[in-house]
Amino acid sequence: MPVITLTINDELVSARSGQSLLEAIRDHGIDLPTLCHLDGLSARGGCRLCLVEVAGSPRLLPACTTEAVEGMVVTTHNERIDRYRRMILELTFAERNHTCAVCVSNGHCELQALAAELGMDRVRYDYLNPDLGLDTSHRLFGVDHNRCLLCLRCVRVCDEVEGAHTWDVAGRGIASRVITDLNRPWGQSESCTECGKCVEVCPTGALFDKGASVGEMEKESRFLRRILDGREKRQWRR
Amino acid sequence: MNPADLAAVAEQERQRQRQLLLRIFLCYSTPCLSAGAQQVRGALEELIRERDLAVRLEIVATGCMGPCSRGPLLRLRRADGDEQIFERVTPELARAILLQALELAPPQVAPLDPDLPFFTRQTRVVLANSGWIDPERLEDSIAHGAYAALAHALHEMTPEEVCAEIKQSGLRGRGGGGYPTGVKWNLVRKAPAERKFVVANGDEGDPGAYMDRTIMESDPHRVLEGMAIAGYAVGAEQGYIYVRGEYPLAASRLAAAIRQAERRGLLGSRILDSNFNFRIDLRIGAGAFVCGEETALMKSIMGRRGQPVPRPPYPAQKGLWGFPTLINNVETYANVGPIISRGAEWFAAMGTGKSRGTKVFALCGEVVNSGLIEVEMGIRLRDIVFEIGGGLPDGGRFKAAQTGGPSGGCIPAQHLDTPVDYESLKELGSIMGSGGLIVMGEGSCMPDVAKFFMDFCMDESCGKCVPCRVGTVEMRRLLGRITDGSATMEDFATLEQLCELVRETSLCGLGMTAPNPVLNTLRYFRDEYLAHIVDRQCPAGVCNLDRIPLLKLPEHAHVLTLFKERTDAGHHPDDQ
Ligand SMILES: Cc1cc2nc3c(=O)[nH]c(=O)nc-3n(C[C@H](O)[C@H](O)[C@H](O)COP(=O)(O)O)c2cc1C
Ligand code: SF4
Ligand code: SF4
Ligand code: SF4
Ligand code: SF4
Ligand code: FES
Ligand code: FES
To answer: Nearest bound ligand to CA A152?
Structure first.
């Protein structure tokens, strides 16, 4: 596979051509925050946490959807980018209800972990606190829209990996929310196979196993890579 | 049909028109229709039947004539070339006008002064036929030169030459960004691919703007012809024209025009006896502003949720179904025919340095003559507002002109002499945009204006990315607090920081430009914001701040208010 060279944070590094900037940066051992991205799903570019500076581009570019190309000069962290990332997290916290102390994912939540990691110590914006409700009609799982950050990992995993396309988005702007089937309760869904993939990839406490109590909802983040490798590399063939 | 047939049809139709004693042009575009054009037509037809006049005259239901606020408009043209135009025509007036024109009654109704600057200061290229032809009759368009440029391009020019001509003309995209059209065409032409597509963007969601609607309603063949020439130039055989759902009249006229053109071999296979095939299909949008953004528009055409996706890759590299796609605005395509017919030099001679040609504006707000105008680029803003627009009504004083809609900004009075072109407007922190031009008088409150546009952006955000989805809502709340008098200086600082964040980190143009109306009003009217926050006063008298308490507390919290009153009065909360 052809190799390309690019500069990341003043260091010359090599990458495979066709790789995304995010992959190249992570392969090089640099930690780049992401929320909507998940290795194995199509890239979305929605959470805007992976924005980096690329020399020659007046705009910040999301590393997850930008292809690494020969000669690129990339900055992944500086005062401006870090400040923006914290502000974006603040906006995410302000958008819905994130009262961690009573959340099923407390202690195991990607959003919470990122906030701690990036040093987001306050929210300067009005908490919008919409009352979005909870759907626990499914036999095994529940969805709490108040904890959803619209990363759409559930939508993509259900469509791209499970092939059911149970999830989708209704509404737009601040009124967007994830729905099952044609906005019917999840428990009445005719397409859901009950595989649990969406629950496993959800970064927050929005999707949970029924019966999980505060802090009990742990997700296994490696599982998606494992089943994809199993399929793609046929590791499971007897 | 071959080019000779085309010329013959044109001549035949011109002959027919010359033989009529009188032609009555009645504006049948949306604003005049809503002002009662249909009833006027009914009255005229009745009179024609009564007096058996049909053989000597005809009624032509045309597209927009321009001064829409004076509609319904009616224009008479006699065989000898004499012309009169009448405003605010009612059915009764229409009868009187026709009778006096035929000298069956003494003159009673005075026509509009033809030397009004509203008419004389305009340069109509894109709108040349608008108001002169029946958009539903192909022959009428052909008699006015439709498809001659296409015939010329197909038979006398190579695709390369067409692209070169467009590039030389200096035409830039009229959809807002102002990207050089010829450069874009060349990119698509050179992109190696088996299939390519051409898309016309007729989504036009900017509040108050109706340039594209008018072009599509008034002269649909001009847009189709521009698209076909583009298809030939870039090597595409399929085009889509995307019209927003709120424009049913534009959509039905386009659909009819496509059918007529196909029937006569002006679209479809082997166009005008050449080897070029080009089909155009209509796509109707369901009313989401963001679907005007090119990547979202393409998703929508492909039947997906209309959400933007990150660029690069640009549509010219990977567009519809992964194939190179040329996407231009409707007005951009409408310029193509005249450029091919009359040459790049003719076009480039109009306008200023980097902004060539003309621009259509929807002039509205506090002006005497509001309506649709087309002016040469470089005209002073003052001339648009005070000459063409006739100034502000009731001697009102000019405060600012808003251009570029929700992505744009306000130009204050001290810059009235700015030439209207891409560069000058950008320098002032506004943009040309797609052509909305709102005139505001002293009674307008700038933070309130900014709030209006933020409301729009908040409602129209697609919700894909966080800075835009949540940032616009938070900005809207802060603006709300400023205009209701409860904002602090800290809120003000937060607003400014959010503007920067949303502009720099949003995915598509909607988010990136959503802060513009705020940033731009801050640039020229910072005092007004401070007056709201510090003095709790609205200089324009729009916001009624004095009625609103500093803290808006719910009923049950009146205890706190009492507490506050006591502390304000100098009591310590503990000394009961
Ligand atoms: C939110 C948003 C809305 C837009 N709406 C329109 C529109 O209604 N019509 C249009 O022609 N271009 C619109 N654009 C610009 C298009 O993305 C694109 O640049 C344009 O159609 C290209 O045509 P042009 O080069 O002829 O200007 C919009 C852009 C954004 C970001
Ligand atoms: S989802 Fe995460 S951030 Fe939100 S409340 Fe639960 S633990 Fe906290
Ligand atoms: S459980 Fe599986 S099939 Fe059901 S919604 Fe989740 S991912 Fe889709
Ligand atoms: S439910 Fe979970 S995975 Fe789905 S969009 Fe919300 S946060 Fe993301
Ligand atoms: S900037 Fe706004 S409209 Fe554009 S993709 Fe992001 S959320 Fe959607
Ligand atoms: S990870 Fe790249 S935008 Fe979310
Ligand atoms: S619509 Fe009749 S003049 Fe514009």
So the answer is: 4
Q: Which are the contacts of B223, defined by CB distance < 8 A and separation ≥ 6?
A: B200, B202, B215, B216, B241, B254, B330, B333, B334
CB pair distance less than 8 Å for B464 and A65: no
Report d(CA B265, CA B258) in Å as an integer. Answer: 11
Q: Where are the domains of chain A?
A: 3-77, 84-233
Q: Which amino acid is at B362?
A: A
Residue-range domains of chain B with CATH: 19-65+74-111 (3.40.30.10), 138-349 (3.40.50.11540), 351-444 (3.10.20.600)
**Span from the CA of A105 to the centroid of ligand 2 (angstroms):** 6
Q: How far is CA A29 from CA A33, A73, A81, B170, B227, in A?
A: 13, 17, 19, 48, 49
Residues of B with CB under 8 A from a CB of A: 288, 290, 305, 309-310, 312, 458-467, 469-474, 477, 494, 497-498, 501, 504-507, 512
CB B297 within 8 A of CB B327: yes
A87 touches chain B (CB under 8 A): yes
* C-alpha distances out from residue B433 to A20, A105, B375, Å: 33, 46, 15
Q: What is the per-residue DSSP string for A15-52? A: EETT-BHHHHHHHTT-----SS--TTS-----S-TTEE
Q: Which residue is it, tokens 């002032």?
A: B428
pLDDT digits (tens, 9 = 90+) for B125-143: 999 999 999 999 999 999 9
The Cα of A36 is separated from the nearest Cα of chain B by a number of Å equal to: 10
Distance in angstroms (rounded) separating the CA atoms of residues B528 and B520: 13
**Would you say the CB of residue B506 lies under 6 angstroms from ligand 5?**
yes
Query: What is the position in ligand 3's atom list of the atom closest to the CA of A207?
Result: 6
- For the cut 70, the answer to whether the pLDDT of residue B572 exceeds it is no
Distance B71 CA to ligand 7 centre (A): 6
Longest dimension (CA), chain A: 56
Looking at all shown ligands, the one closest to residue B362's CA atom is 7
- Please provide the CATH number assigned to the domain covering A3-77: 3.10.20.740
List the CATH code of the domain at A84-233: 3.30.70.20
Show the beta-strand stretches assigned E in B305-404: 325-329, 351-352, 355-356, 358-365, 371-376, 398-403
Does ligand 3 lie within 6 Å of residue A41's CB atom? no
Closest-CA distance, B448 to chain A, in angstroms, reads: 20
Q: In degrees, to the nearest 5, what angle opens at C-alpha B228 toward C-alphas B227 and B231?
A: 85
Our answer on whether the CB atom of A4 is closer than 6 Å to any ligand 2 atom is no
Report ipTM (2 d.p.): 0.95
Residue B545 phi/psi, 5° resolution? -70, -30
* pLDDT tens per residue, range B150-159: 999 999 999 9
A67 contacts in B (CB within 8 Å)? 312
Give residue for tokens 């990458």: A15
Pairing state between β A134-135 and B355-356: unpaired
| Ligand 7 neighbours (beta carbon < 6 A) | B 27, 29, 31-32, 64-68, 71, 73, 371-372
With 0-12 / 13-18 / 19 or more C-beta atoms within 10 angstroms meaning exposed / middle / buried, residue A235 is: exposed
The burial of A58, by beta-carbon neighbours within 10 Å (0-12 exposed, 13-18 middle, 19 or more buried), is given as exposed
Q: How confident is the model at residue B571 (pLDDT cuts 50, 70, 90)?
A: very low
The CB of B311 under 6 Å from ligand 5? The reply is no
pLDDT digits (tens, 9 = 90+) for A21-53: 999 999 999 999 999 999 999 999 999 999 999
Looking at the DSSP bridge assignments, the partners of residue A51 are A62
CA distance B334 to chain A (A): 31
Is A8 close to ligand 2, i.e. is its CB under 6 Å away? no
Please state, in angstroms and rounded to a whole number, the distance separating the CA atoms of residues B481 and B360.
Answer: 37
User: B467 and A60: CB-CB below 8 Å?
Assistant: no
For A174, the closest of B463, B464, B465 (CB atoms) is: B463
**Is the Cβ–Cβ distance between B506 and B467 less than 8 Å?**
yes
